[in-house]
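Cross-posted from the bioinformatics board.
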Amino acid sequence: MKAAVAYGLDNDNFVMGYRSQTEWRWLITTAFFLGGLGGGTFMVSLFTGFTVAAIVGWCLAVVGKGAAHFLYLGNPLRFWRAIMRPQSSWISRGILGMVGLAVFGFIYILIHGGVLPGTGTAAETVFAVLAGISAAVVMVYDGFVIATPPSIPLWHSALMPVMVAAYSLLGGSTLTLLLAEAGARGSENVATGNLHNLEIGLIVFNFLVLVVLLSVSWNASGTARESVSLILSRYGLLFFGGVVVVGLVVTGILAASFNELSVGAIIAIAICELIGDFLVWFVLLNVGVYQPINPRARFAR
Amino acid sequence: MTRWGMALDLKRCVGCQACTLACKQENGTPKGVFFTKTVSEEVGHYPNVTRVYTPLICNHCSDAPCLKACPTGATYQTDDGLILVDDDKCMGCRACYVACPYKHRTYLSKEALEKNTWFPGHKTPFEERKLREFQGGTVVKCSFCEHRLAEGKEPACVITCPAVARIFGDLDDPDSHVRREIARRDGYQPLAELGTDPSVFYLE
């Protein structure tokens, strides 16, 4: 018997069809966004030596992301159980990374900021390395969380962790520029000279990754194509307007003329980039589509 | 070693949803929650169009993505291959829900468990009794009626099916009815290409 070729987006009625991912929405979008932004900012701060950025990154990743996850959980008081299965679960690994960033990052900030003795010693380097490894885990683990299971074809891509890492670094460099140039610099001598070049490079890289991800998904399977169709239609305005135009094109143009920019323009860059950063998560999570479980489909090929 | 499994006969299934109702009655699942159901599909082209039915149930995969994704250890696998959820350990992160390619898990919010009753404002005696077995803020799923298996009975959906479209048994026993039917009729697993090794097979 030949199966139907095209399915609708059924959403769990008693009809065969594609089914949307309906559980991970606003709070998880916020958590993933803050985790990437905070981890990226902290990571960039390790190379620039910018204490304020380290503090802001730490707060976003540990407090902001942690709070968003905590609010999302069905039984939040059991959150401590999330570290129980690091051998298989990327969430467990990520939570361990957050714990590492919370502890090592805090000690690093205290030492680097001169609150604790040891500035410029091996102890600071050790804690910087440990905090950096933890921040790297926090930056990318969300990408692995959604890319590892085969459930949603659009997400089940090796490009996903790469894109997440690149967006995290982009957000981190943007926030560092904003903090450094728009008032928080204070007495610190922050080397931000190359950050806007890094930002331009990451904007181009992210644009290419998005193009490759969507084009590969379009041709990969019917389910992945359904997800891409949602991006192009229902979420088209958010994706093209928010992610591509505001988040990449406008940000890129502003960043390319960085040296001539006022503080106001730098704030505009940051806002544009952060909007794009948030919306890319929002769109990707909302267009997650599961395959139809049609056993007869194998006879239709 | 026992590995519980099920064969779903697509030629026999008439789409009556008796399995769906039997499951709801046996497990007392809240309104809108189905551990098993039968979906329909129109196939063919005019004038040769027909409606076909596909029963769906948790596949209790040997290599279950939900098991790997669960960060708390709430999802676990028994020695006889069942994938179960320990309500007391589930923190409601829904990673398993997202990871299951078959979308056979359901999140039960505390609000829905309290308020989403069949009659607005109050619970029926059946709901009062059965909903106590669920915890709000956790993810629930089919257990192949584990409590019935412990008593030597088959799952409720299997004994209820009037068309005998569901065959249940030990996949590791080469002489079991389910195993022989799968072999004889070239049974196949849903979305087998994902490598999850489901314990549910379809017979065409």
